Fold:
Amino acid sequence: FLPIRCVKGECDVIGIIGAMRIEVEALKAKLTNATTTTISGVDYHQGQLNGVDVVLAVSGVGKVFAAIAAQTMVLHFHVSKIINSGVAGTLSSQLHIGDVAISNALVQHDMDTSCVGDPVGLISGINIVELPADESLYTAVADVAQSLGFNHQIGTVATGDQFVGNRERKDWITKTFNAIACEMEAGSIAQVCYVNQIPFVTIRVISDEASGDVHIDYMEFVKLAADRSMAITEALLPKIA
Structure:
């Protein structure tokens, strides 16, 4: 199988990454002219969705798996944009289960070289804490969420290799980074996109309150949250292609 080869300006392939199968399965089922390529154990599904050329992937949970999927989309499939679609825990009083967190910036809350004088969250090598999302993408996502009747908030999404399930950690992330939601992949995808100069946004529907009741919340509401995230992604595609 040969990857898509694009000359700048001649094609527009959008990458869509979810960590779990539940976060992309409905989109995969709607692909037309679909083909599948497996690279490093990850299946990449190419085709058209809502008339737009896309590549879908279930990366696996956590920052490393997500970064592998994002870099493969950049180097092998030559995507022009990447959307990370999925679920998250809320850090905001304005966002509750079923509401939508839209990134204008990403941080990695588990990056910490502060013992040598760096700010908490600084990503060494590029030397920034906040990774910017693409403004045209996150404003388009907000417009779609509004049109679908979903309460939403634009702000910083915090990523780390831990499922935040206690009040103390939730409060620390919120205070340290002024973040509105926390999850486990978007910040690493954002870093890949930043170094490759690929526009990026994450759409995260709230599945839990990131508190002591997180297990009960998550198991009950993850399907609802994933469905809403996929609905936004599908409606977004014609607006950004």
